[in-house]
Each structure stands twice: as C-alpha cells, then as structure tokens.
Amino acid sequence: MNSTLLALLLVFVGTPSSGAEQPSAAATDEIRTLQTEFVGVLREKDTAKFLTYIGARGVAFGVDGAFQKRTDVAAEFHDKRGAYCILFDSTCLTVESRSRGRAMTGSPRLCSVSDLLTHDWQVKSKLGSYEGKPQTHLSITAPASSCSNGREPVEFIFTRFADGWKLVAVPYT
Prior knowledge:
Largest sheet: 6 strands, mixed
Number of helices: 7
Helix content: 25-40%
Shape: globular
Strand content: 15-25%
Distance between the termini: 17 Å
Number of strands: 6
Strand order of the largest sheet: 2-1-6-5-4-3
C-alpha cells in the first residue's frame, strides 16, 4: 500500500462519525475494559496477548507503514526487532534508530511504549466508526522528560469486528 493511500486511510479512520449518538453505558464499559487490558499488556510486555489484538487484516505501524499480518509481528517479537522494539524495548529501539540514521545527538534517549508507561501517563479514547464498524483511538500520553519521544501521545486505533476489538493501526512518525 503506498504512503499516500495509507495516510488517507489513517485520516479517514481517525475521523469520528459526525452526529453520532453518545455511546451506550455498555459500550463505554467495553472500551474502558479494552483500555485497562491493553495498557496492562504493554506494561507487562505480554507479546502473546498483544498478538491476539491483531485481526485478519493486520496492523499498520507508523504513518507510512505497510500492513503487517500477525505472523509478521510475531516474527519481529521473536527476533526482538521492529514492533517489539517500539512497543517493549528501549535499548533495541535506540539501536534500530541509529542504524536507520535517526539518532538524535544530545537529545534524551528514545523510549519504548512500555517504558513510557513507567512514567506518569494517561489514556484517552475517542470514538468513531470505519466502514460501519465502531472504532476507538486509544491515545496514551506520558510526559516523560527523560525520553525524546515522550512528548507526543502514542495512538492505538482499534476497530470492533465480530470477534472483538482488533488493533488496525499504530500511527507514529
């Protein structure tokens, strides 16, 4: 999928339904449960549970990232690279960034999402829909001054399918 198409998809995916009714109490509870469980998965570095959130369509990491199937993400977790570093391991995230020429000289270190969650953090959700299915954006904000990437929220976009909430995108730059 080319970057323009993916960017348009993420813009469309991120647009809440206009005129949508307030979610029911049951839907609100379901999203609150999703938030709690998902943050727990990230904090505990539970790669097996994380993989259960990836549906048949796969997940896109990054604004220009290609969709990856669950097996692709599992391979990155096994090899401790890519998505594993972004989500769970600040050390390999820094190494991968340097190898791609993205090191920030003189800046605080890069932190994995899991490490960002060791600081004071909060999660917000924004409801919307995509292709007639409920969707929520979980936005994790961690004001971590010791991390160069801790100033911007990390978003996780979930769509509700018949088999539950599935992670469809983690847009970051």
